[in-house]
Amino acid sequence: MEARTVVDTVEKVTGRPARTFAQWVAEHADRFKP
Question: How far is CA 19 from the centre of its chain?
């Protein structure tokens, strides 16, 4: 596995820390229910 550098670009641009895709899905799942 390749090493990755963590940067704070998302937080600088949006004002909040980055989230994983799993976190985003959990927070928005109700928007995709029929």
Answer: 2
Q: What does the radius of gyration of the chain's CA atoms come to, in whole angstroms? A: 13
> What is the pLDDT tens value at each position of the chain, 34 positions in all?
677 777 899 899 999 988 889 999 999 999 999 8
Q: Interior CA angle at 18 toward 32 and 10, to 5°?
A: 115
**What does the CA dihedral 12, 14, 17, 25 come to, rounded to 10 degrees?**
-150
Residue among 9, 4, 32, 34 nearest 24 (CA): 32
